Amino acid sequence: MALVNAKEMLNKAKAGHYAVGQFNINNLEWTKAILLTAQEMNSPVILGVSEGAGKYMCGYNTVVGMVKGMIETLNITVPVALHLDHGSYEGAKACIEAGFSSIMFDGSHYPIDENIAKTKELVAICEEKGLSIEAEVGSIGGEEDGVVGAGECADPDECKMIADLGVTMLAAGIGNIHGKYPANWAGLSFETLAAVQEKTGTMPLVLHGGTGIPADMIKKAISLGVSKINVNTECQLAFQEATRKYIEAGKDLEGKGFDPRKLLAPGVEAIKATVKEKIELFGSANKA
Ligand code: 13P
C-alpha cells in the first residue's frame, strides 16, 4: 500500500476507542522493525521523524525514498503514514515538498495568535495536497532532539481555537513529558484532557511522551479521547539494552559476530517486541 495520510486511521481509531501508535524512526533498522511489526499485527502505523532524525538520515528526501522502498519491497499492506514530529514552520514545508503524508507543526512555543496564524497557513497547504496535520497547544515537557518543552497543561479554549482551524489531530499538553518520567511525576492531568475533548468535540487527540506511561493511564487517556500515542525513547532504550547485552556477552567477538547485520539484530528484535507490546496496549491490532 502507498503511504497514506493519518486522517482515516485516526477517525477510525476515534470511533473504535483505540489509539494508533506513532513510533519514531532513526535509521533503516528502526524503520524495518516497525513496519514489519505493524504488518504482523495487522495494525495501522505512523512513522514519526523529528527534524534531528531527518537530518541524521540524510534529509527528508532520503527518508521518503527509504520508507517507500521498504513498503514496496517488504510488501507492507497496512496503512502507513510518514509524519514529521514537532516540526518547525520551515521543516513542515520541507516535508510537504519531500513527499511526507503527514506533518506536525509545533507552534506551542509561539504566542497563541502566532501559533494560530502559522497553523492556519499550513492547514490550507495540507488540505490542498491531501496531507494530515497535527498541531500543538501547551508544550510537552522534557527534551526531544533539541526541542525543549516546559510540560504545561493546555488551555482548553486555546485548543478549541486551533482545532477549529481544521487540523486533523491535536496534541494538547496534559502534564506529559518526553523521555523517562521522573520518580516524582504527578501523572497525566485527566481533568485537562476531558476539558480539551469537551471543547474540541470529536477531534482526535494526541498523547506525546508515550514512554513509561503506565498501562492504566494509557487506557484511561484513550477512553477520554486520545487516538494517537507517540513512542520514541522506549524503542531507543530497548535497542540499547539488547545491544549492550550482546556486546557484554562477547558475542561480537565470536565468529562473524562483528557483522553489523548480526550486531544490530538483537536491538532490532527488541524494537519489534516493544512495538508489538504497544500496539496490543493501544488496541490497534487487526484494525488495518
Ligand atoms: P517519548 O520519547 O517519551 O516516547 O516521546 C515520544 C514523542 O512524544 C514523540 O513526539
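^ 1,3-dihydroxyacetonephosphate complex. The chain is about 50% helix and 15% strand. The first strand starts at residue 20 and ends at 24.
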